[in-house]
Structures are given as C-alpha cells and as structure tokens.
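Sample entry (159 residues):
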Amino acid sequence: MEFLVRGEIKSTSFKFLIFLVLFLSVNNILQTVSYSTKEFDNLAKVCNVSAEDLEICKKYEVPDSESGKCFLRCALQKLGMMNPAGDIDKEASIQTMIKSWPRFSSELNTELFTECYNQVQPVTKELAGTCELAYKLMKCLNVVTRKHGYYNDFLKSDK
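Predicted structure, serialized as tokens:
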C-alpha cells in the first residue's frame, strides 16, 4: 500500500480508503435491517420454532406459546444478549441494540434496554435459564421500542 507523498494520495491507498468507506456504509445498512423478516428466517433455521410463532415474530410481536418463548431464548443467545446458561448479558445486550438500531442514539438504546433489564431483574434468579426470562425481556423491549418508533419503517415496508 502506498501512502501520502507530497500531499498527493497514491492510487492504492485511495482505493483502500474508498473500499473502507463503502464497506462501513454497507455494514451499517445491514445492521439497520437486522430485524427484518429475513433475519427471523435465518434464526428459525438455527432455533426450533413453529410456523405460527415465526409468523408472530415477522409481525414484530412477541409469541407467548412455550415454543415461541424458547425461540426467543435461542435468538437472544445467538445475538449474544443471553449467555448459553440463559442469563441476560446486560452490556452485550446494550451493544447489540446499539449496533442493531443505529438510527437511534446510544443513550436511548441504553435507556430502553436498562428499563427492561431492571423490570426483569427481580425474577432473574427464579427464571434463570428458562425461556420465560427471554419472553419477559422481549415483551418489555417490544413495548418500549414501539413507543419510540423502532419498528415504524419495518411495519410500513412489510405491508
């Protein structure tokens, strides 16, 4: 790779810079649509989910059947929001939300996740490792993020 020579950018470094900018732009776009129906299809291949529960998720709602709750647990584990034992990883969850919802501020993502985390904390020990814990967290997140317009673009584009 060539570098700046007398204030001129050599073509190799310029091409690399353009590639880097394009890569970061595409990566950001992909993160923005991380909750698309295609993503649910990908998670469905990895996690055991019924067709009914998958359709509920594709409407950006939270399934309340036992299999739907376990799908949520599996999905949260794949996203790094829950560890393999089924405990909520607060810091990783906040980072996942920030990466998944770049249109919304880091502060708002942190605030909303923390609100739901604090809501389920009293039952965490009782429900640790269960699908019910994932359900309670996702039910709360679905409510608070909807209030802030997180799904508006998806709901419009999926109709």
